[in-house]
């Protein structure tokens, strides 16, 4: 199965910027989509989107920082590069703290933009691999029985078999059998394999009450 196409999304209300940056990036071999507003971009943004986004900080509808925040709220992991013509250091700090890969001041150097794009696409690749690992882990866990999931929950908490057995009101030997079965279903050769799959699926992200 091939990886989804990685596209660079230019989000800027300035048509001249969209055209000039789009031309530069297409010439460098990238797939490019342009959007005249943050609202327009958010309408087409999905979690399956691959690539990166160039966001103008100051736009008339919603600014780049708000677009960045809404992407995060929706779980859309596309890397962001912020563009500004105002050299606002405060906005730069806010953007980077919120996860922006880079903050470029207009007019920016061609080499600086292409370097930032390369970094963003590298980040996009890591995000995609993490997303696929999580999806695969969830599918694997779906094959477990309810009792096997109970035993797995205890393993994630670091509990020994005897304590898991006590918590579930079953024999230690029964826990051992469930543990062996779930490891086989998960194709796990060790406890570390089991934990990696569990953590990829989001287990253990919150502390027990």
Task: Show the helix and strand layout.
Elements: E1 6-11, H1 15-27, E2 31-35, H2 38-44, E3 50-56, H3 64-73, E4 80-84, H4 89-97, E5 102-105, H5 110-141, H6 146-156, H7 161-168, H8 172-185, H9 191-200
Parallel strand pairs: 1-2, 1-3, 3-4, 4-5
Describe the protein's architecture and organization:
The two termini are 41 Å apart. The protein has helices spanning 15-27, 38-44, 64-73, 89-97, 110-141, 146-156, 161-168, 172-185, 191-200; strands spanning 6-11, 31-35, 50-56, 80-84, 102-105. The longest helix has 32 residues, at 110-141. α6 (146-156) packs across α8 (172-185). The protein contains nine helices and five strands, in the order βαβαβαβαβααααα. With 209 residues, it is α/β, with parallel strands linked by helices. The protein has two domains: 6-134, Response regulator (Rossmann fold); 143-200, Winged helix-like DNA-binding domain superfamily/Winged helix DNA-binding domain (Arc Repressor Mutant, subunit A). 55% of the residues lie in helices and 13% in strands.
Tally of strands: 5
Q: What kind of assembly state do the chains in view correspond to? A: single chain
| Rg for CA atoms | 23 Å
Instruction: Compute the average pLDDT.
Output: 84
Short description, anyone?
The chain is α/β, with parallel strands linked by helices and 209 residues long. It contains 9 helices and 5 strands. Helix 5 packs across helix 9, helix 6 crosses helix 7 and helix 7 crosses helix 8.
